[in-house]
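G., before I forget:
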Amino acid sequence: MTAVTSTLLTPRLTTVVAHNWKLAIAVAVVVSAISMAGLPAAVSFWVVGAAAALVAAAFTVNAYRRHYFGALLVAPAIAVLFVMNIFPLLWSLGLSFFAYQANQQTIRFVGLGNYVRILTNDLAAHATWGALINTAMFVVFTVSAQMIVGFLLAILFAKQFPLRKYLLILVLTPMMLSVVASGVFFTYYYDPTFGILSYVINSISGNQFILMSNKVGAVAGIVFADAWMWSPFVMLLVLAGLVSVPKYLYEAAAIDRISRWRQFWMITFPYIRGLLMLALLFRTIEAFKLADLVILLTKGGNDTLTISYHLIRIANEQNKTSEGAAISYLMLFMVIVLTNLYLYLANRRTKGA
Amino acid sequence: MSTIELRKVTKRFGSFTAVKDVDLSVAAGEVVCLLGPSGCGKTTTLRVIAGLERVTDGEVVIAGKVMNNLPPEKRDIAMVFQFYALYPSASVGENIAFPLYHDGISGAERTARVNRVAAILHLEHVLDRLPNQISEGEKQRAAMARAIVRDPNCFLFDEPLSRLDVELRQTMRGQIKEVLQGLSKATVIVTHDQLEALTMANRIAIMKDGLIEQVGSPHEVFAKPANAFVASFIGTPQMNLLEADLKTFADGTADMTVAGTSLAIRTDAAVARLQPGKVTIGVRPRAFTPTDTGDRGTISARAELIEPMGAETLIHARTAAGADIRVVVTRSQRVKVGEALNLRPDPRQTHVFDGAGKAVRS
Amino acid sequence: MAESILGKLGFRRASGVDEAGWGRTLAVAVVAFIYFLPVLFIIFTAFKPQGDALLVPPTLSPTSLFGLIPDHFVFKPTLENFGSVFSRSMTPDGAPEATGFDRYFFNSIFIASASVLLALVIGTLAAFGFSRYPLKGNDTYLFIILTTRMLPAIVVIIPVILMFRVVGLSGSYLGIIMLYTAFNLAFTIWMMKSFFDELSPDVEDAARIDGSSGMRVFFKICLPQVIAGLAATFVFGLILTWNEFLFALLLSGPDTRTVPVAMNQAVSSGGRGTDWTLLAAIETLFLVPVFLVTFFLQNHLLRGVTFGTVKR
């Protein structure tokens, strides 16, 4: 409902009015350029910031005058996101085209050099590709596990029963744990000597069980811990959908003697499909960033290095900041492609139905 | 044989009793309306018949079998819900076809039946649309179609017309009646609209606070209400109920004080049984005859508000003592605001209710 | 008759299609308990005497539950670890000193609630804007907002550190609150938008015709209907922000440090290996606020609100 009154024309460049954003941009650019060239960094930062604020103010007044309510409502969020997220992201992107190391002072422009290196150079590429494959594997396993377990848990809690509130909070607690605490304790649970897992298997088979001795075990351990922590997230979203189905639809289905299976697909599923998609989307995005559990449980051993952990090593421990930026943008690119694909499919289905 | 019988059915929700000791029987092909104000227990009674609620006490017998412990799936009933309960993700045609899957009929036969029912209810042109793409009236007919496409033991309707506008209601009333007549199944309709009940039902059961106040044909409940509640619930405009003090009764005339005025009104002979004391007189607005001069047999009132209703006129009048009286006269009888009226009640239509509200009638 | 007696005791047989009885409670209780076990173990460890934490066989319970659990699985509960959280000796024979954890807990609570609430306010307004006043590139804007969540913290960290240092926000409350607000915005906007999309416009149109301004419509009509969404977003945001580690590590100063950072420090320093009981005690205490908030908001979370999936 944007009300654009055609009588309000964009003012010409030279009119000095509060809402002349074109003029504001022009002034801002000129002032910024001058200050960056002539003034010390700290001061010019503030000058550029003030110029940006001027432009923003012009836009805001413009929006207010033209009743662009949408723009007004959205503006604060965009502002915060821009400053806190987008600007740093753009800075990193720019950095990926240079050769910069945080512990040095030199900056060299290398264009796509970093990207080429991480993808084709023997050492770097091997680590990169290996980490990418591992990440893909983790994402598939842990997200599938979360969706299945979360969905089953939601079905359990879908009906009202005594003590439901108290049992629900028990299942939600794993989500609330700090990753440090849960990661550390899971190493304990998996420990061959002291851990409960090994103890139980020991009582049955008589041998200690070393979960982390091979890649399969290590991956299983990580996936299990991660899925355990985040299935409640999926459960909550699906549960919100399940409880929103109008009761009388099930009553009509009972009277019509429709089988439980068909009831699920025809009545329940349409209500939870959107939520399942939302859960899938967010959990996949988060799963790509999996690093903390890997660090805590295996330190990347047994070939469980994920791309995010690889990144941390490169940027933090080895100080190859630019290369790290290049890797992360590669990752971002892949996630963007995947997400776009996913959203496209999801939208097509809802429109078609 | 398609019948429904409720024997002393009681339904309690915790400490609240929604339905008390209800006895009702519905014969094959008979349409019974459960009528009453909100909260009277009519919908709960219907849900008990459907099996959507379990009885606390009593028996629900459908087609001769006691169904107390059977879930709705096993009772072979059809129900039309107040909100239609059409499955949102299936087309109208698919919605109607769903109950037939259980019977193991072939796809071709299913389609044939759906088409037949759609023709009866004029739904042929919307069979491919989704429920959210059709009008309220079409939704209502679709819900009905889904119910009649089967051959169930009985039909249950929960406020079928409450979501339709006035014009549509009129059309649908007639249509529903027509369709039901052709099916010869026991049918129970729940409604709060007396006009619906009066036009569609063979018998009406009026309920209040979980109890059935009266069961009878539309004519019976209108002309011979069993108590003051039924009397005031049935009939538009509402029956006039006047507080009175009965003094004596002789020769078919009751001597009483109505709102301060002493009146001698002709009533039913059974009034002789009553002790002198507090009673309620009920006279419907159309049962008054305005006369020119007042006597001890007329109630005098002053017209305050005139409502022309087309062929008739509704007059709101007030007695000297402040009681409201509604009178309906033909439009040829012109009455002006402030005019004094002398209203003579028709003795055959004058109801007397004793102190407890029960009708006194021979 | 038996049914009415059982009914009085609370064992009412399920009378509706969405009610279940004690049978389900039992089944769910078993599942929930098993799911909760790892957490329970952490909580129990908080109560164990310091030496007992790593024992074989693992000590599982503070009580023997009427002899059901054999004695060697039982430990003697103690509260000393909780005391250690706030004051303990830093050197092998030194006297106990205050650890500053009370300040860290306050920091966590303050920073998390401030940023989640801020994100809720800004994000809900923005979600309303996206929903009710869609612009031409709406989907693109929303997608870009989503991408802010896609990169791991490590990527954004260096420019943010530099930025903060220049502006002087390092180690300050404002800086980290602003950052966390930005984190929560993506999820808040997406969640709240889908809730707003679901509201039927009829009531709003009626209010507009009656003369209410846009803002009035928002507050009096739209907002009350999406309480479930607000509650869910608040809980999710709180949980995510509460446990955030990396940015807190690099951007908070000694005064503004949050518990996850302090936890990591307290536990891995000292060269004695992981101090299990201390870690368990900190984590148990740390769980309490989130637990309480989630518990009290549960009713709002479970109110049936469709999520923009099927139009009625």
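Chain A has two domains: 1-83, 115-352. Residues 38 and 242 of chain A are 62 Å apart (CA to CA).

More on Monday.
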